[in-house]
Amino acid sequence: MRHSGGRLTGPAGVGRVKSLMAHRRLELSLTFGIFVAALLVYRFLGPPETPFNNFVRQAQLFLDGRLDLPADIPYLELAVREGKYYIIPPPMPAILILPGVALYGLALNQTLASAVVGAVGASVVSVVAGGVSTNRSAQIWLTILFIFGTVYWYAAANGGVWFFSHTVAVLFLFLAIYATLARQNPFLAGLFLGAAYWSRLPTVLALPFFIIMFSDQWLPSQRTGSLVSRINVKPLLWLGFGVGIFVLLNFVYNYLRFDTPLDASYYFRKPEIWDEPWFNHGPLHITYIPRHLPIIFEKLPIIQTEAPYILPSWGGMAIWATTPACLYALFAGIRSRPVIVFGSALILITVAVITSRAIAGAWDLGWAQRNIPFNLTAFPFLLLIGLAVVTAIRDGNKLVLACWSAIIPISLAVFSHGATGFAQFGYRFSLDFLPFLFLLTAVGIGERIRWHHKLLILLGVIVNLWGVLWIYQFQEHEFLGLQWVGW
Predict the structure, then answer these.
(1) Which of 24, 76, 381, 426 makes a 20 to 30 Å CA pair with 268?
(2) pLDDT in tens, 317-328
(3) Cα–Cα dist 115/122, whole Å
């Protein structure tokens, strides 16, 4: 193979170019196919529209050159200040749909917009999955895992204000991950992280992930001398600059609305909101954390003795129940076979106890009514998380450590919220850190997709299909005159 003027010549060069072009065509075809499949599924198995079209209204306000609504809209969650009404969540979803609102005005279907954004996000997931796994089969299975085997499906199909925020944030988080792992561009990663932040504020706490993952750039191994002298601040400045653009925009946006650069919208919510018992210490407080933990570790569907027997709970479901394959994330970076065997047995026993109690509770069996201290059921999960973090530090596993460095602070932030996310399918706040849990799951699964991986991925798809059908289709149309979802 010879190089001439930067071009490949000769039979070997031509063959390499053709192979590269064929590979790229296959990648584009797969990415486009994922987009189409996700769009069709999200749109046609989801609700037709949402009354909570806050972002369509917000986009129209931007086009009209104003920030406040001209009048109160009772069914919208609004902030009130000096007789003016404001949309509470950050405005990135509204900015994203500005072209559609410019064309269709308030008639734009926000649920359709969410399905499109969700499908774009699904394509990005496919690209990221192809980056973390060189195995084509693993890439496809991992993509299916996220777009159809997690609560991302329910959120993207919903389109309501809270769920659309999550869908947009997930899109930008995956773009930030792509910019980090594939492009290795700190400014682009920071810019996408900032965009995610302007959709869901807690996602900015994923910053440690990017600082750790770019450590090869800001702390290059080839440099010698003291630790301080080895630091190259330029990559960190570019990363901070990307995030800082949106932080500054948020400061200006809030100052124009509330005369403070801080996001005070939740503190200006309609007064009756604070009469609710779950906000007895305001919107955020550390004492709220114990409310969230039983949901993410223990909560199962409502099981009853009459049809339809198993109902989704608006109160939420454990993450491992909606996405069983995420259990592999607990073993990411752990190579000790005895630890894996012992940890797996511990998790299986815990899941079996929780599940058997839920089933027995439907028949009012006495032993199922006995309280089991929460720390006994949460302990195996917390133990394995702690072990994974310690192992990653010991082994210098940068990706695993970076993922947990994003998941833990984001989790603590969302767990400190007074409400636990209802009404929802699964635990919607998990979407703020789910892209990083997905990366850990991919690491835990490895390059080869084995039968048990496929089994848990398919089980997750079935569970999320069940939730979508029960809530969006059967409950919505009162199928067979039954109640398909409850508390």
Answers:
(1) 426
(2) 999 999 999 999
(3) 10
